[in-house]
């Protein structure tokens, strides 16, 4: 059972605006997937608000929330880091990329064949998703997302990976039943670190 917070706030619009700023400042096309992370995570929060408006139960909004949170991010993050990485470090990123592909395939099959059942519980919403092969699938998810950030060879993305890696057990310890909720919100805020990555200086091309 996954838990997700039902609360929304003014910060979501701020996240989306910052996400648009990140995209506007991209100087290389292959940086676009990583630069789009703040916008993607910022959009994810209002989707949850739409789930609350339905009063719970299966709905397109619930499916959309699960698609973004589960298979999409499992594939988006390692693929984006791989595209943006320097050629000399791309080989080691194929491990997280393969894990992301496998994890996204399993999760996509789950969402295509099994209903997502949200249940409103006060200020939180629990999402019932029957995921097989526990804890193998969550491990693959974390390796694909956090692993790609940590070993991608970029200091700024590495910092984002460390922040998210530290936030995961902290959220689990403080909000056991709302782990997905708090970590999702935490990831959305932490993704603003991508703005510094987008503005990073590039090495000068070699003189020929």
Explain what the structure shows.
The protein is about 65% helix and about 5% strand. With about 210 residues, the protein is mostly helical. A hairpin with a 2-residue loop joins strand 2 (about 115-120) and strand 3 (about 125-130). The longest helix is centred in the middle third of the chain and has 25 residues, at about 60-85.
Radius of gyration: 17 Å
Secondary-structure element order, as H and E? EHHHHHEEHHHH
N-to-C span? 58 Å
Which range best describes the helical content: under 10%, 10-25%, 25-40%, 40-55%, 55-70% or over 70%?
A: 55-70%
Report the average pLDDT across residues. 81
Summarize the biggest pleated sheet: 3 strands, antiparallel
Question: How many β-strand runs?
Answer: 3
Low-confidence parts, pLDDT < 50 over ≥5 residues? 1-9, 204-208
* Spatial strand order of the main sheet: 1-3-2
Strand residues, percent: 5-15%
Q: What's the helix and strand layout?
A:
Blueprint: E1 2-5, H1 11-24, H2 32-35, H3 37-53, H4 60-84, H5 94-113, E2 117-121, E3 124-128, H6 136-151, H7 155-174, H8 179-190, H9 194-198
Antiparallel strand pairs: 1-3, 2-3
Helix pairs in contact: 1-3, 3-4, 3-8, 4-5, 4-6, 5-6, 6-7, 7-8
